[in-house]
Structures are given as structure tokens and as C-alpha cells.
Design brief:
By secondary structure, the chain is mostly helical. It has helices at about 30-40, 40-50, 60-70, 70-100, 105-135, 140-150, 155-165, 165-190, 200-230, 230-255, 260-265, 275-290, 300-310, 310-320, 325-350, 360-385, 385-415, 420-450, 455-475, 480-505, and strands at about 5-10, 255-260. Strands 1-2 form a two-stranded parallel sheet. Helix 5 runs parallel beside helix 8, helix 7 (about 155-165) runs antiparallel to helix 10 (about 230-255) and helix 13 runs antiparallel to helix 17. The termini are far apart. Residues about 1-45 and about 260-270 have low confidence and may be disordered.
Length: about 500
């Protein structure tokens, strides 16, 4: 790609016909749509210039999409490298806490619950700021800068290791995930800029999920074994290197990936405080969702997180059952996280063959059935009497959680207008991370304060999954969300046909 290529957010892959009805938006949206129509030919030329060749989107495979789209290929490589290192640090930090606490199993569970919560709180606090950055700055530059900053943080885990301090582990985890919470909205809203149509977007988002799950399987497994046999220091140092590699790959993409001219102009308004801009932009995004037909969908990922949020706490407890040697515990934890990665890998691939971006109802229905898979997975974990059974049903649970995560994200990508995407994604992630943290605390409390076994907690999660399955099935059957969108599209098609008939007559 040419280093001078500029891709504006308003030049997104969407055709104007795929935008939701105008009565769900503020009046300014109509102005943006008009500008999008005027620049449609320019948009196609700009986005096509970043690809090595043009192949019909419906016919291209994942491999062809990556082979012919250099920026997407480099982005995926960056995503792989960064997540590989993050899993090393995550497993190593858990192992470090367990080693510091010794044989006190109850304290271990509570301490790991605190680690999970400390890692998730930053997303609630800082994600709205990350969304504003995503909608007002060059998303690639934002990610490169944050990757460089993140490369310094794993070194602080070494301080915690040598000081033998759990408090420092918590502080470093908070810093690391604060940066990640600002990073994530730019990352998620950067993907649509890398593709030229909805079919390619679906493949790109699914690929991101596959990459995450692959790194969960490989990174967590290798992290467990590395922590067990080489020590946690090696894991922290590797994470530092991977952040630098991620920044380099993003730099290789080149170009200027800007937001819409409208957002840039708004960003140049002279105000007395940057916080005023942040608050105003986020209030606008909340009002936008409140008046849109798909607003409730922003809670779907949060419901998913409320169910799977207990999984990390349960994985640690389940890997510890019946094991006396610490090295075996770490290896089993790595194996369990590896099975989670396998389920996360296979689930989205299976669901991808049953969904279609042109029929958003299929995406919404996939999310409904995903909650059913979550329930089955937790039910199996609750009744399994062997570690192999736990691994198998953990894979099923993970498949369900990833199907819901990816397809709910696709729904928001499809329905959200380009200028709001960063902030909507930020709110979506903030709700999800808050929900995950709440469930992680609940899982720890149920085990430590009420003496429930990991299997009993898994059965509680199965019941919660069944409840959300019924809730979202009702939402779907009542024609809300994607159903409303399709009904309005059908009405518009009928109106167009009537106008054609009048002209012909």
C-alpha cells in the first residue's frame, strides 16, 4: 500500500443502502449520508488500492482474503503477536500469585478473583476515552503508540516477582489493562477500514476471533509449560518483545487511517477542556443508541460475559483439584486454557457457515443458540467426574461464548453508522468487561464464602446461561433488532417497487 494512502471512516465499506433507517439517527446523519453518496466512487478507489487484487467477496476464502489484502494481513500478524505475549503474562501472573500464597487454596481463589477484577475494571473506566480516540484520531497511530507503551509494562512484573508482592502484581495488571482498554476500541473499529464489503468484514471479524482462540490455545498452553519449567520471568520478558513486534507490524501497514471529515472538524473546535469533548462525544453515543432500533444489542456481549466470566476462576480451581505438585497444576491449567482455545477456534468457524451478513437475523439467531451452548458446556463441567470431561465441556462452553461475542460484534458493525463506531464499540466492551468482572467476583465468593465446589458454581452459570438464552430468544422472536431492520428494508423495497410501477404506467 502506498504510504500516502488515506482511508477515511466516512469512506467505510458500507453502501448507503445498508445503513439503518434515517429516523433512528440525529439529523446530522443525513448530511453524512449525502457526503457518503458523493464520495462513493472515491471510496471504492481508495479501499481497492490497498488490496493486491479484486476477487468477488462471496467467492474468496479466508486465505485468499489475507493473501490479497496486505494491510489486513499485517494487522492479523500484529494481533497474533500481541495476544501470544498477553497469554504468557496472564498465565504467569496467576502462577506467581499461587506461588506467593503457597498452600492456602482459599486465599488463592480470592487473590485470583481480585486479579481478574483488577484486569477488567480499567475497561469500564477508560474504554469511553478509547472510543473518543478511535473516532477522532488516526487509529493505526493510536495502536502503535499504545503498543510501544505496553512494551514497558511487563518489565514491572519482574519488580513484583523480585519483591514477592501480590499488591505490585495487581498494580501492574491495572496499568497493563488500562492501556489495553484504550487500545481495544481503535483495534475493533480499525477492522472495517481494512475491507471493502460486508462479506469480507464478516470473514475479517471471524478471523480475529479465530486468531484470539488460536492464541488462547497455543499461548496459554505454552505459557503454562514455560511458567512451570522456565519460570515466570521468561513469560514476562517474552510479552515485552511481542508488543514491540506488534507495533512494528502496524507501522508496516503505512498510510493515514483517519476518521470522517465531520468528526475531524468537530475535534478541532476550541474548547476549554479535553474532558468536555470526551463527555460530549460519549453522551452523543448514548443518545444515538437510545434512539436507534438496535440499542439493546449493545448488552448482548455483556450477557455473554456474565456467563463466561466465571470461567477463569473455575479453570484455576478445576486444574488444582486432585493435584499435589505445583508443576502439574501449572501444566494442567495450560491444558485447560488450551481446550478453551480449541473451542473458541472451532465454534466461530462452524457458525460462520450458518450466517450471512445480508441476513442479520442469522447473526442474531446464532447468538441465541450460543447461549444454549454456554449452558450445555457449564452443565457438562458441573457433572463431569474426570479432568478430560472438564476439558471437553470447557471447549463447548468456549465455542458458545465466542460465537455470541463475534456475531454480536458483527451486528453492531453492520448497524452502527461509521462516525459512531469507535464509541459504540467502547461502550459495548465496557459493559462486557464490567459483567465479566462481576461474575468473576461471584464465582470467587461462592467458593470461598459459601463453600461451593467449582462444579456447583458451574451449574449456577448453566442456569444463568439458560435464562439469557430465553431472554434473547424472546427478543428475536418478537422481531426486534435484526428483525426490525429487515422489516424496514422490506418496506423500503416495496416503496421503491411501487414508484417504479408508477413511472412505468
Amino acid at each position: 500500500m502506498s504510504g500516502t494512502t488515506s482511508v477515511y471512516l466516512s469512506s467505510n465499506y458500507r453502501s448507503i443502502s445498508n445503513l439503518p433507517p434515517s429516523d433512528t439517527f440525529p439529523e446530522t446523519v443525513g448530511m453524512e449520508i449525502n457526503r457518503g453518496q458523493e464520495n462513493e466512487m472515491e471510496r471504492k478507489a481508495q479501499v481497492s488500492s490497498i488490496c493486491d487484487s479484486t476477487i468477488h467477496a462471496e467467492d474468496e476464502s479466508y486465505w485468499v482474503l489475507l493473501r490479497t489484502n496486505r494491510p489486513l494481513r499485517l494487522y492479523m500478524a500484529s494481533y497474533i503477536v500481541s495476544h501470544f505475549g498477553e497469554w504468557f503474562t496472564y498465565v504467569a501472573s496467576i502462577s506467581l500469585i499461587e506461588n506467593l500464597l503457597g498452600e492456602d487454596a482459599g486465599s488463592k481463589r480470592s487473590a485470583i478473583s481480585v486479579l481478574v477484577v483488577v484486569s477488567l475494571i480499567p475497561y469500564v473506566i477508560w474504554s469511553p476515552i478509547g472510543g473518543c480516540f478511535a473516532d477522532s484520531k488516526d487509529r493505526r497511530i493510536v495502536m502503535i503508540g499504545l503498543d510501544c507503551l505496553s512494551a514497558l509494562v511487563p518489565l514491572l512484573y519482574l519488580v513484583a516477582y523480585h519483591a514477592q508482592s501480590i499488591v505490585i502484581v495487581y498494580m501492574v495488571a491495572f496499568c497493563q489493562h488500562s492501556i489495553a482498554s484504550i487500545y481495544e476500541p481503535s483495534r475493533a473499529s480499525f477492522v472495517p477500514l481494512l475491507v471493502t464489503n460486508e462479506a469480507s468484514l464478516k470473514k475479517a471479524v471471524t478471523l480475529s476471533g479465530i486468531v484470539w482462540s488460536t492464541m488462547t490455545a497455543i499461548g496459554s498452553s505454552l505459557g503454562g509449560f514455560t511458567s512451570a519449567f522456565l519460570g515466570v520471568e521468561a513469560c514476562f520478558l517474552l510479552d515485552c518483545v511481542t508488543y514491540i513486534g506488534s507495533a512494528y507490524l502496524l507501522w508496516k501497514i503505512g498510510g493515514t487511517w483517519k476518521v470522517s471529515p465531520e468528526t475531524e472538524e468537530a475535534n478541532n473546535i476550541d474548547t476549554s477542556s479535553i474532558w468536555y469533548k470526551i463527555v460530549t462525544m460519549n453522551v452523543d453515543s448514548i443518545n444515538y443508541l437510545r434512539t436507534s432500533f438496535f440499542g439493546p444489542l449493545v448488552f448482548m456481549k455483556g450477557c455473554d460475559a456474565l456467563v463466561y466470566g466465571a470461567s477463569d476462576i473455575l479453570n484455576v480451581a478445576l486444574s488444582d483439584q486432585g493435584i499435589e505438585q505445583e508443576d502439574q497444576n501449572n501444566a494442567r491449567m495450560g491444558m485447560l486454557f488450551g481446550c478453551v482455545g480449541i473451542g473458541s477456534f472451532l465454534g466461530p468457524i462452524f457458525a460462520n457457515n450458518m450466517t450471512d451478513m445480508k441476513n442479520p437475523n442469522s447473526l442474531q439467531l446464532a447468538c441465541v443458540w450460543a447461549f444454549g451452548l454456554l449452558g450445555v458446556g457449564y452443565l457438562g463441567i458441573g457433572i463431569s467426574d474426570s479432568f478430560i470431561g472438564v476439558c471437553f465441556f470447557s471447549a463447548i462452553r468456549a465455542a458458545g461464548s465466542d460465537i455470541a461475542w463475534i456475531n454480536s460484534e458483527l451486528l453492531l458493525q453492520k448497524f452502527t453508522k461509521p462516525g459512531m463506531l469507535g464509541r459504540v464499540v467502547a461502550l459495548d466492551y465496557a459493559i462486557a468487561e464490567f459483567s465479566e468482572g462481576a461474575t468473576a467476583v461471584l464465582a470467587g465468593v461462592l467458593q470461598d464464602k459459601y463453600g461451593m465446589s467449582p462444579q456447583a458454581v458451574a451449574l449456577v452459570m448453566a442456569a444463568i446461561a439458560a435464562f439469557f438464552c430465553v431472554v434473547w430468544l424472546t427478543y428475536h422472536v418478537c422481531g426486534r433488532g435484526a428483525g426490525y431492520y429487515l422489516a424496514r428494508e422490506k418496506e423500503k423495497e416495496c416503496s421503491r417497487n411501487e414508484e417504479k410501477d408508477k413511472l412505468l404506467s
